[in-house]
Write a structure and sequence with these properties.
Elements (H helix, E strand, L loop, with lengths): L5 E6 L3 H10 L5 E7 L3 E3 L4 H5 L9 E3 H4 L6 E5 L2 E5 L4 E4 L2 E4 L2 E4 L3 E3 L5 H6 L1 E2 L3 H20 L7 H4 E5 L3 H21 L9 E6 L10 H13 L3 E4 L3 E5 L2 E4 L4 E3 L2 E4 L3 E3 L16 E3 L11 E3 L4 E3 L13 H19 L14 E6 L2 E5 L4 E4 H12 L5 H17 L16 H9 L1
Parallel strand pairs: 1-2, 1-9, 2-5, 9-21, 11-18, 12-13, 12-18, 13-14, 20-22
Antiparallel strand pairs: 3-4, 6-7, 7-8, 10-19, 15-16, 16-17, 23-24, 24-25
Helix pairs in contact: 1-9
Length: 433
């Protein structure tokens, strides 16, 4: 007897989308098509270490086709979502039209510049592999340019680095750049004669790591200051042009590198009515992650706002663990639904939060206690190694990581630039031709 397969289209291959597909497995009832603008999955918690040349991008990424090569029901569609046509049960991408029986939206977030066009134009976001490599190139180029322009009265702009955002990403990259400056620049750039890059960490909040414990907040501040990071709290970036960062208190910092980790906003969902979009542009869903007003459209991860969990009436935090748990549960609910079994409402299991500050120093907030230092760093290492996509990547990452931290000599400090610059639309046009 022939099986009438259900076409499931998943838009977005981050934590939520990948965990959904993995949990659904190779069930013969489903035909799964993943849509993503990249052909690979990557591990965002370690993106800052790619940006600072401590690990290779290949250590934290894997092509989707390789990841799901054993899933006989899996298809990949390289494309960008253009529109959701719910009336005809199909999605339009810049590479074609895909029909669906069920649509799973897992697009995640994008950088939020809070309407500041100069910042959007000139700052460096840190959301994906491309962003990380751009930051790496910029930091290394600036060091070389500082050496090459001794006559420039504003040459300090080359070695001033401003990080906007005092959350985990901002703290982590500030600490790692400080490590780069302290342990590598002096060894490999004798022309600087002891001059180190100056790192400014700026946040509008009164503390670093706002959602974490006071133990974590104080440890982050103390460790970063010992590394030479200048921390400015209760102030925000208001503008950035002509290599000048302007803060809300009037302070001006000359820099050619503003790294923006100050906020995110859910990606747009063209075709979903405005009254189904909530705070932070997150789409409203019920307890089963069904988009309100639809029967066969679902949203999981950072892009959704779910107020049905009693412990999180204002929605869940936009964390990897939420996305992973929602993806896994939605797959189980699909299977239950198609077997005429009851679905299970989503309830988030908070496993805690962690952040690395510098070499061998981290902070960890677990549900019942907080701790810091080397043991927290080791715990962070083990916990973040487990979800890496493949067994080979895990051990390769561990080896590279430990060597880089111990020796400060990863050999990845390469300035790699394309001789021919083409925007995404040209690439797409050539691919379709």
């Amino acid at each position: 007897m022939a099986v009438n397969k259900k076409n499931i289209v998943v838009v977005g291959g981050g934590f939520a989308g990948v965990n959904f597909i993995q949990s659904l497995g190779s069930d013969s009832l489903y035909n799964i098509t993943l849509v993503d603008i990249n052909n690979y999955n990557f591990f965002p918690p370690l993106i800052y270490q790619v940006a600072t040349a401590f690990i290779e991008s290949s250590n934290i990424s894997m092509p989707f086709r390789k990841m799901f090569k054993r899933n006989k029901n899996f298809n990949f569609h390289l494309g960008k979502l253009i529109n959701i046509d719910s009336a005809n049960n199909c999605v339009h991408t810049d590479a074609g039209i895909l029909p669906y029986d069920r649509l799973v939206l897992a697009l995640g977030t994008e950088t939020n510049y809070f309407g500041m066009e100069n910042v959007k134009k000139n700052a460096f976001p840190m959301k994906n592999i491309t962003d990380a490599l751009a930051i790496r190139n910029k930091i290394l180029l600036n060091l070389e340019d500082y050496i090459l322009h001794p006559e420039n009265p504003n040459r300090d702009a080359y070695i001033n680095i401003v990080v906007a955002g005092g959350g985990p990403s901002g703290v982590e990259i500030s600490g790692m750049i400080a490590e780069l400056s302290d342990r590598i620049v002096n060894k490999e750039y004798p022309e600087l004669a002891g001059i180190k890059p100056k790192i400014h960490l700026v946040d509008a909040a009164p503390v670093l790591l706002g959602p974490m414990s006071k133990v974590a907040q104080q440890e982050a501040k103390e460790v970063l200051e010992k590394l030479g990071v200048t921390i400015s709290l209760n102030v925000a970036v208001k503008d950035y042009q002509d290599d000048i960062v302007v803060l809300s208190d009037g302070t001006k910092i000359h820099t050619k590198a503003l790294i923006w980790t100050s906020g995110v906003i859910a990606r747009e969902l063209p075709g979903i009515p405005a009254d189904k979009i909530g705070r932070g542009r997150r789409v409203l869903v019920d307890q089963y992650n069904t988009v309100q007003g639809f029967e066969n459209i679902y949203a999981i991860g950072d892009i959704c706002l779910q107020a049905t969990d009693g412990n999180y009436p204002n929605g869940h935090p936009q964390l990897a663990q939420v996305a992973m748990q929602q993806g896994s549960l939605l797959a189980k609910n699909f299977i239950a639904l198609d077997r005429n079994q009851p679905e299970k409402p989503f309830a988030y299991w908070d496993k805690g939060s962690m952040a690395v500050i510098s070499r061998y120093k981290a902070v960890a907030d677990l549900p019942k206690f907080s701790f810091k230092g080397f043991f927290a760093w080791l715990t962070w290492l083990l916990i973040h190694l487990v979800p890496i996509a493949s067994f080979r990547n895990k051990w390769k990452l561990l080896g590279n990581w430990l060597w880089s931290f111990y020796s400060a000599n990863s050999g990845l400090r390469l300035i790699i630039r394309s001789e021919r610059k083409r925007d995404a639309q040209e690439v797409r046009t050539n691919r379709q031709a």
